[in-house]
Amino acid sequence: MTLYDRIMGAPLATADEAKQTVGPLAGIPMLGLDALSSAAYGPEAALAILLGIGALGAVYIVPITAIVVALLLIVFVSYRQTIPAYPGGGGSYTVARENLGVRFGLLAAASLMVDYILNVAVGIAAGVGALISAVPALHPYVLPLCLGILVLITLVNLHGVREAGVAFVAPTYLFVGTLGLVILLGLAKAALAGGHPVPVEVPAAVPVASTGVGFWLLLRAFANGCTAMTGVEAISNGIPAFRAPSVSNAKRTLAAVVAILAVLLIGIALLCRLYGIVADDPDTANYQSVLSKLTAAVTGRGPFYYVTMGGVIAVVCLSANTSFADFPRLCRLLALDNHLPYTFASRSRRLVNASGILALAVMSAILLVAFGGVTDRLVPLFAIGAFGAFTLSQAGMVMHWRSLGRPPATECDRPADRGSRGAALAINAIGAVATGLVLLIVLATKFVDGAWVVLLLIPALFFVFVRVQAHYAFVREQTDCAVPLAVTDLQPPVVAVVMRRWSTITRNALRFALSMSDDIVAVHVNTDAEEGRHLAAKWGRFVEAPLREGGHAVPRLLLVESPYRLFLDPLFDTLTRLADENPGRSVAVVVPELVGGRWSDYLLHNQRSTALKGALLLHGDQRLVLVNVPWRLAKH
Amino acid sequence: MTLYDRIMGAPLATADEAKQTVGPLAGIPMLGLDALSSAAYGPEAALAILLGIGALGAVYIVPITAIVVALLLIVFVSYRQTIPAYPGGGGSYTVARENLGVRFGLLAAASLMVDYILNVAVGIAAGVGALISAVPALHPYVLPLCLGILVLITLVNLHGVREAGVAFVAPTYLFVGTLGLVILLGLAKAALAGGHPVPVEVPAAVPVASTGVGFWLLLRAFANGCTAMTGVEAISNGIPAFRAPSVSNAKRTLAAVVAILAVLLIGIALLCRLYGIVADDPDTANYQSVLSKLTAAVTGRGPFYYVTMGGVIAVVCLSANTSFADFPRLCRLLALDNHLPYTFASRSRRLVNASGILALAVMSAILLVAFGGVTDRLVPLFAIGAFGAFTLSQAGMVMHWRSLGRPPATECDRPADRGSRGAALAINAIGAVATGLVLLIVLATKFVDGAWVVLLLIPALFFVFVRVQAHYAFVREQTDCAVPLAVTDLQPPVVAVVMRRWSTITRNALRFALSMSDDIVAVHVNTDAEEGRHLAAKWGRFVEAPLREGGHAVPRLLLVESPYRLFLDPLFDTLTRLADENPGRSVAVVVPELVGGRWSDYLLHNQRSTALKGALLLHGDQRLVLVNVPWRLAKH
C-alpha cells in the first residue's frame, strides 16, 4: 500500500459501487447537515434585522419563525412527492429539465451551483466566526483557518462519499442532542416558572428600540430567516447515495431532517421569547451569538455550555460537506448532457468525481478569499440560488403531474402518494407559489446588499452550459465518421529530425526515423553559429558514410539560418515548406528528448522540445505529426 | 507590426549587438543608478542608529561619512584596476573564479545574486515608502504599488538594455542636479552666515539624548552607512554594455559615479551638521526623511522642494534597474559555465536574456510579498552580499597581480595603470582588507536583525550552482557520442493506436499508422463498457474489410479491461507487454488529438491525451515512442 493509497484510500472497483451507499442514520449527516446547520444561523439572521425594535424583536421572532416552519413543511411535502417520482435523483435540474425544458433545467442547475458554492463559503466562514468569538487569539488567522478547513473537507470527500458521511455522524448528533436538550430544559424551566423563567446567566440588557415595527422590516427579517431552509433539496438530489430501498430511505431521511429542523427552529424562537433574548450587533466588542446567549441563559456557562458550542461550531463548519456530496453529482448530470467537460462525468479511483470536488473547492476558495472569510459579507448572496431551484423544481413537478396520469405507486406507498393527480399537483403548485414568493421577497430585500452578484453569476453559468454544449455538438458533427478507413494512396511520411548536436539522443532518434521512412531530413536551426558547424563537420562520417555503406538512402542535413536567434519561427517555416513540397504526405517531426526519473531533470533539459511540442499543437497544421523519441538517462 | 512587437519592440538581429551599447552619459543611469541612489538611504540609515544620542547625531555623522567616503575611494581605485584587467566584464564572479578558483567564484556569484535581488526589493520598497509619505492616501496600496513598479521595470528591461538606460537618463540627472543644487545653496548660505545658517523651515526639535555615545553604536551607524556603497561594482561587471572603447568609457563612468556619490554623501553630512538635522523615528506620525528635512531647511517647501523629492522618489525606485542590467549578465556567465540551465545563456529577440530578467523579477516579487514591501524589514539583509563580492573580487585581484608580471597596458593608459606590479597589488590588498573588515562589521552588527537569512541563502545558491554543473557533466558524459549511426537490424516499429471511438480523428490517426508500419494494434481501454462495444461493432466494417480488400495486413483491436476505471495504468501495462513481445523493436504509441485554433478548446478536449503524453515522458521507457497525430477542427 503506497503512501498515496494510505491517505486517499485504495481504488474502489466499479462493481463495489453499492457498498458506498448509506442508510438514513449516516444519510442525515451526509445530506442533511446543510439543512440542520441552518438552525444555527437562520434565527440569528432574522433577529439581526429586528435589532432596531429592541425587546420587541424577541416577540416578533415567534410568528416569523412560525411562517418559516410552515413554508418548510410545504417544501417538505412537495419534495416528498418528488422523491418517488424521480428515484434516480430528483434534483431541481432533472425535474425542471424534464418538465419545463432544457433552458429552465439549466437555470435551475446554475441556481443550485451558486447556492452550493455559497453554502461552502458561508458554512466555513460562519464556523470560523464562531470559533474566533470563542478563542479571540485566533482572530488574525480567519482566512488561513477557513482555507485549512476547506482543504480538510475536500480531502475527506476525495476519499469517498461514504467516509465523508461517516466522519460527520458524531458532530451532527452532538449538535442535535445538545441543542435539543437546551430547548427541552429551557421550556421545562419556563413551564415550572409559570412562563417567566429566571435565566442562569442574565442576557445583556436589550437596547432600547430605535425604530418602529414596519412591514418592510418584518419582510426583511423573514427573508433572512428563510436562510434556515437552505439545504432541504439536497436529499432529493442524492437518492442514489442511499442503500436499497433507496426511495424509502431517502423519504425517511427527509422526514427526519425536516422534523428535527422544525423542532429546533420553533424551540429557539420560543426560548428567545421566554428569556427575552435578541441579537447583538456583530460590531460590538462583547458580541455573543443568539445560540450562545440562549444556552448560557438556560444552563449557565458550565462544561455543558462549551460542549454545546463545540457542536454548533463543528456542524456549521461541516455543513459545507453537503455541497461536496451534491455539487459533483450535479456536475456529473450536466456533463452527461454535454453541458460541462467530460471530465466531470467520470468517477475517479474512489468512485467520486474528483473534478467536481476540486472545482467546488476552488470556487469556494475564491469566494472566501474575495470576501476575506467574513460571514456578514457572504450572507446576502445566500438563499437566492436555493429558492430559485425550489421554485423551478416545484413548477416542474406541477407540469409532471399534468402530463402524467397520477403519481406512480412505489413499494413504500403511503396514502399521500396514492392521492389523486389533482392533490399532488395542488401540493406542488402551492409549493411553487410559496417558494416563488419567498424568492421575490429575498431578491427585493437583499438586492442592494449583494444579491445582484448572484444575479450576474447565474446567467454567466447558464451561458457556459449552453456554449459548452454547442461546442461539443459542433465537434461531434465534425468528427462523427460513417466512412471506412481509406487504404489507397498510402505513402510513407517525410521525416524531419530536429537536431541540435550529434549525441546518443539524436543518434537514437535518427535510428527510429530510419525505421519508419527512407525520406529523412535533419533540421538544425542555427541559433548559435558554432553548433551548426560542429554538426555539419560530423555529418559525413557519422551519418552519411554508414548509410551509404549499408546501401540506404542518405538523409540531408538542413542548416536553417536564424538572424534573430529565434528557434520556433524558422523551424516552422522549414517544416511547412517540406509539407508543401510533398503534397499528400505527412511530415513526421521527430523530436529527440531526454527522459529521466527525476522531475528536476525537466527543469534543466528539454525546454526547447517542450516549446516545440506546444507550438505544434497550437499551430495545428494537420500535415505535421509529432514523433517524440525518448532517450533514457541512466539512473544517477 | 503586431501589438506584441509594438509593446516589446521588433526583434533585434545578433549582428546589431554593437548598436545596443551606450556611452558614459547613458551609462551613468544604466549602471550607476544603484550606487547614486544609495545617497538617498545611506546617510539616513546611519543617522537612524544615532537617534538615541540626540543632537550629537548631527555631529558624528560627519566623521562616519568621511570614513565611508574614504572606503568608497579605496574601492574605486581597486575597481579602476580591475576594468582594464578584465575588459570582457570583470565581475566579482569572473575575477574570483580565475584567480581564487571555481569555489570562490561561485561564492562571489551567490553573494552578488542575493545582493541584486535585495537591491530590487529595497529600491522599490524605499521608493514606494517615500511616495506614501508624500501621499498618505496611498498607504493601503503599498504592496500593489511595489509589484506594479516591478512589472513596469521588468517590461522596460525585456524591451532592451539600451532602452532601459535611456529611459532613466532624465530622473537620474534630475536627482543629481536638484540635490547638488540643494547642497551648494545650503553650503553657500552657511558660509555667508558664518557657519550658522538660518533654516527656511526650522527642522522639528531634536529629541534629548537617551543613551551615551559608545563604540558599538558608532560601529552600527557605520555599518548602516556602508549601504551607501552598494552598487559600485555594477560598472566593472557591465563593461561589454559600453560602446567602444569600452574600457575607457567604463572607467570614465565609474569615476563620474564615484565622484558624484562622494560629493553627495559629504554634502549631505555637512548640511546635517550645519542645520542640526537628525533622523526621525520612522514610527512617529510626522516622520520626515533626512533629505526631505534638509531640502526644506535650505529651500523651504516651494515647488523646488517637490521637484527635488520627485527626483529622489524616482531614482530610489529606478535604482532597481541596475540589478536588471547586471543580474542577467551574471546568470549568462554562470550558464555558460554550466552552473545554471542553458536558457540563461541565450539572448531573446531583443538581445536581452529574458530568463534572467524574469528570474530576478520573480525572486524580488517573492521578497516584496514576504516582507510586505516594508523597507525597514529588508534593509538588514542588504550590503552583506555586496561586501562579500567586493572582498572576493579584491582578493582575486591580489592573486591576479601576483601571478602576472605587471598590470597590462591598454590604449587608455594612465600613470596609475602603469605603476609597478607591487603598487597595484598593494591597492587591491588594501581594498580587500578594508571591504573584508566592513563585511565582518556588517555581519556582526546586523546578524540578529535578519542578516542570517542571507547567510542561509548564499550557501543555498552555491549548492544549486554545484549541483547543476554536476548534473550537466553527468548528462554530457552519457550523451556525448563518438559512434556513427548503426544501420543494421532496422525493423519497422510496432504501432499501438490509442483509440476511444471511431471518429474522423481516429480514422486519420490509423491512416498515419498504416503509412509507417504494417504491424498495428488498436488499443481501447474499457473505462466505459458501452464505448468498447460500440467500437468493436464498427471495427470489422470500417477497418478490417477495406484493409483485407486492399491486401493489407489487418490490425488487431485490443479491448483492455479496467475494473477501477483507470486509464493510464492498464494502458501502460498493455504497451509494456507489447514492447516485451517484440524485443529489439520500438513501440510507436499513436495518440490521435484534436487541435483547434482556440485555447478554450484545450479545456474541453484532449485531457486524456495530455495525461498520456505526460505519463509517457515520466515513465521513460525508451522503447515507447510517442506519435501525436493531429486532426484539425474546422474554423468556428
Structure report:
2 copies of one chain form a homodimer. With 636 residues, chain A is mainly alpha-helical. Chain A folds into 2 domains: 28-410 and 441-474, Amino acid/polyamine transporter I (Up-down Bundle), CATH 1.20.1740.10; 494-632, Rossmann fold (3-Layer(aba) Sandwich). Chain A has 24 helices and 5 strands. Chain A has helices at residues 3-8, 24-49, 56-85, 92-100, 102-134, 142-159, 161-167, 169-192, 215-225, 234-237, 246-275, 290-299, 303-318, 320-336, 354-370, 375-378, 384-403, 415-418, 421-479, 504-516, 529-549, 568-581, 601-604, 607-619, and strands at residues 494-498, 520-526, 556-561, 587-595, 624-632. The first copy, chain A, has a 5-stranded parallel beta sheet, sandwiched between helices. Chain A starts with a helix and ends with a strand.
Structural class of chain A: mainly alpha
How many discrete domains of chain A?
2
The parts of chain A where pLDDT drops under 50 for at least 5 residues are: 411-418
Tell me the helix content of chain A: 55-70%
CATH topology of the largest domain in chain A: Amino acid/polyamine transporter I
Distance separating the two termini of chain A: 26 Å
Oligomer: homodimer
Average per-residue pLDDT of chain A, rounded, comes to 84
The helix/strand series of chain A, from N terminus to C terminus, equals: HHHHHHHHHHHHHHHHHHHEHEHEHEHHE
CATH superfamily of the largest domain in chain A: Amino acid/polyamine transporter I
Name the biggest interface.
Answer: A-B, 92 and 90 residues
CATH C-level class of the largest domain in chain A is Mainly Alpha
Tally the beta strands of chain A.
Answer: 5
By CATH, the architecture of the largest domain in chain A is named Up-down Bundle
Instruction: Kindly estimate the percentage of residues of chain A that lie in beta strands according to DSSP.
Output: 5-15%
Sum up the overall morphology of chain A in one term: elongated
What's the story with the biggest beta sheet of chain A?
Answer: 5 strands, parallel
Strand order of the largest sheet of chain A: 3-2-1-4-5
Radius of gyration of chain A: 33 Å
